[in-house]
Amino acid sequence: MSELPLEELIRLCESERADFRQSYEQQSPACMTLFRRAFAGDQVAWSYIFTLFGRMQYLWIRRSFDAASSKGVHVDIEEDDIQGILHDALIALHRASQRNPGLTATNDLAKLFQYWKKCIQTAVLTVLRTKRRQRLTDRLTQSVPNNNNYDLEFKVALWQRILTLLSEEELVILRLDLQGYKPQDIVHKFPQRFPNVQRIYQIKQNYLRRLQQDYIIRDILGYNR
């Protein structure tokens, strides 16, 4: 089957998927051969995989978002986000196939699909975290003292909680970040305290995660509503 023309391989794969929908037969030599070609670098094979299994991918994405919504995570998702999830999941699957040849060692798609589904779920969680951190950053920026978007009571409640959660070092980075300083500007301003940009990003990621996970901050910013 590895010697078949791509067009014939695609036709057989489509037939195997039709059989699966009727009998749930996991053995799928043509589809697995198509995956092997894609993993070997055949871009045309990749494009057909995206087409043949597109509906399944969108189903996994929707279920992942539904699971997040059931836990109170509400984030607006755009088409660009979905395309990014599909792209990142396929890249992760490709890398996994290079590290673990067992994913495509047989004609059984179950193991490969199980890992692919996990790649989709991971990509969805990454998008959710990124968007929620951006939302948090936006709300923090809007709540600085010289901004009139929020009333005084809101600002006082928010910053009192922030002061109890963050270390002095984190507060320094947060305040500079809200003033518009770039990581390289902070390193230049405080070279002894913050030796490199990577350290700034690490501190920022840590405090954003802590603020995002705090139930009081979530309530103040409306995440729990």
Describe the protein's architecture and organization.
This protein is mainly alpha-helical and 225 residues long. Helices cover 74% and strands 0% of the residues. It contains 11 helices and no strands. α1 packs across α2 (29-39). It is elongated. The termini are far apart.
- Give start-end ranges of low-pLDDT stretches: none
Q: Helix tally?
A: 11
pLDDT averaged over residues? 84
Assign a percent range to the helix content: over 70%
What's the gyration radius in Å?
Answer: 24 Å
Report the β-strand fraction as a percent range: under 5%
What general form does the structure show?
Answer: elongated
Number of strands: 0
Structural class: mainly alpha
What is the helix/strand order? Answer: HHHHHHHHHHH
> Oligomeric form of this entry?
single chain
CA distance, first residue to last residue: 55 Å
Largest sheet: none
What features would you highlight for this structure?
225 residues, mainly alpha, 74% helix, elongated
Please give the structural blueprint.
Elements: H1 6-23, H2 29-39, H3 43-52, H4 54-70, H5 79-99, H6 109-142, H7 152-165, H8 168-178, H9 183-189, H10 197-213, H11 215-220
Helix pairs in contact: 1-2, 2-3, 4-6, 5-6, 6-10, 8-10, 9-10
